[in-house]
Each structure stands twice: as C-alpha cells, then as structure tokens.
Amino acid sequence: MATARQQGGGLLLALVAISLAMVSVGALALSSAGLAAQRAAASERALAQAREALIAFAADRPIDARVGPGYLPCPDLDDDGWAESTCGSLSGHLGQAERLGRLPWKTLGLPDLRDGHGERLWYAVSTRFKGLLNCAASRACVDMSPATALGTITVRDGSGGVLHDGTLGEAASAAGGGAAAVVIAPGPALRRRDGHEQRRDCARGECDARGRCLANPPWLSSRCDPRNYLDDAPAEDNARFHDRSDARAGNADGFIQGPVELAGAPAVNDRVIAVSRPDLMARVMARIGLELAQCVRRGSQGPDGLAMPVAQCAVSADLGRVPDATLSGAPACSASADEPGWWNAWRTHVLYARAGPEGLEVVDPGGRSLGRGRRFAILVTQRAGDCAPGVVQCDADGCRRAVQPSRSRDRHDALVASP
Prior knowledge:
The chain is about 25% helix and about 15% strand. By secondary structure, it is of the alpha+beta class. The protein has two domains: about 240 residues, no CATH class; about 140 residues, no CATH class.
C-alpha cells in the first residue's frame, strides 16, 4: 500500500510539474505577444507623428513672392538630424540615392523619434515635392498647384498590391497616384534576401563622437547604409527606389509595407506609412486660402472698402479673381504677379467672393450656420477655372452664402471667410 501511495504521489507531482511548465510556456508566449504589440504600437505612434510633422512642414513653411507652400525637406543622409540642402534634380534623373535617408527630425522640430525597437525612422521624398535651393529660378519648380504637384513614389501593401501608384502622371488620377513621401520604421536587423547581413554599428573611422557618418557619400558608412536597416521582398527592395517626374514608367519600383513572411520566416519587418498627395494638398490649399485672405484684407483698406473681383464667373460681378492691384497694395503679401512666382501657378485655382450689404454667411454641407457677417470669402479649388456652382451663392447685391466644401480623397477645396 505504501508503495502504491508513493507511486501515486510521484505521479501527482509529475502532473503538477507539467502543468506548471505549460503555464510558464503560456505566460512566456503571452508576454512575448504583449511585448511585440507594444513595440508595434510604439512604431505606429512614431510614424503617425512624423507624417503629421511633414504635412505641417509643407503647409506652414515660410513663403515669399517666388516660392510658395507645398515642399518637403530632403532626407538626413549622415544621421545628424538635419535635412540635407539638396537631394537631386527637379525631374529626378539625378540624385536618386539622396532622396532616401533618415527622417530629419531636427529640421521638422521633432524629438528624436524612435520605433518600437529603438531605431531612428527612415524617410524618402518624392522628387516632385522636395525643396530645391534654386527653386525660385524655375517656373516648373515653383508650380505646386493641384494640376502639376503629383507624387512619384509607389507604395505596396504586404501582398504586393499597389496602394499609391507613382507611374500615374495625370491630374485626373492624382488621388490614386504616387505618394509625396514615405516614413519607415526599420525594426530589428534581418538577413536580407540578397544575403546581406544587416550591421548597424560604426566601424572605426566611419563616425564621429556623436555618431554622425563621416564617409563621402554617407551611405558608405554602415550606420547610414539603407541596406542595413531596410528589407527586401520579391515585389520591392525598400533600400532603393525609383522616382522621376519626366519618365514615370520606372516609378513602379517603390516601397512595400511589412510585415512580410516568406517560407514562414520574416522577410520584411519595415513598417511604412505614406504621406499621400491628397492629404498634403488639402493642407496646402488651406494655406493658400489664408494667405490670399490676408492679402485682400490688407490691400483693400480705404474709403471704397473691398476691391471688386476681376470678372470671371457669369453668376455675379462679385465673384471672380483677386485683382493684381489689390495684391500689390497689400503690405507683406507674398502673392505677386512677378514671374516666376507661385501665385501665377495658383491664380486660376482661387476665387474671390465679395459680400453684399448683409454680409456673407458660411454654412456646412448640411446647411447649418458656421458664421455670419463675413465681408468676403476666398475659395481655393482643385480644378482650375472652377466657378464653384452650388458652393458660393451670389446675386446683384453681392455674395450672401458660401458652403464649406466637404473633403474626399478626390476633392479637397478650401474655403476661408473673413470678417
């Protein structure tokens, strides 16, 4: 009996040990899954913050009579946090490698953003949206209007499907066209499909005491080589891309969003977020509206009140274009008729509505009042020459109502009404 009880007790202890082992394995699995989720969430937060900062940079940057809003910074190639001064030619046929580097967090006024694995973010900018030092000398460069500012970067989802098509070069297809930029959280090091082992340290003489890459060009240092951070899949290699505004067929070579697994093993752990052209243009058009409203307010002071619009729309004499004389009479107005200059590219996209004696009321698309007694409104339209039927209502006594445009992926007109 004693032997039987001993054997039973031993079996019970064995079962308890097995149960404890299973609980430990389960707890470890849950802990690993929880840690992975936390890291993924941290990466997504950093990417979202970087994306918003880039859009704000393009919309809010200082402008003058030559160069308007809409431009994004060049990447940081040597890992010092600052954008490089230039990153290729206007068409993109030169300097392709210079348009892929780290996010210039100091230039954007951001903290030192890191992904969930502690790595700095990477960044690629479309050749059409990058800022150039000599932009003011080129009519094509200063033209960032909706008809011409089209993204050139292709972005694919993890299965290879196209999310943003950089080969499209028509304004009518801009909503589904190329991205203006991408931001990438590189994640932990992997062995790339081409056999390259990702190494992220600084070899002797490659970096200074602060970690800035000293090689010329910087990507010859391991710390600044995109192949040591960005992964590749059969559909795309994130360590290189192609984007040209004059030869778009090659722009199919872009970026792929991770995670991607091949044969059960991770091939791409890069998390990629795009700065889409519609999102960027919506904010830029709002900035244009604010700029023109300021010019009209300051340029129309005097006994005669607001300037009359230039005849454009048959609906009313009080709906048309902003007169050049009003712009030239406004102090600190950057909208100038001089060539080349951003206003000449945008003028056919801007409507000026002069209110009647009762003032102008702004309503939302549902008809609810958003404000009354406005003196005038500036409407920035995606389509050049648009008289905005149904948006601005005018009669012989002036304009009396304006509908705040609703935004979609295809349309993002902006309205600014001034008291």
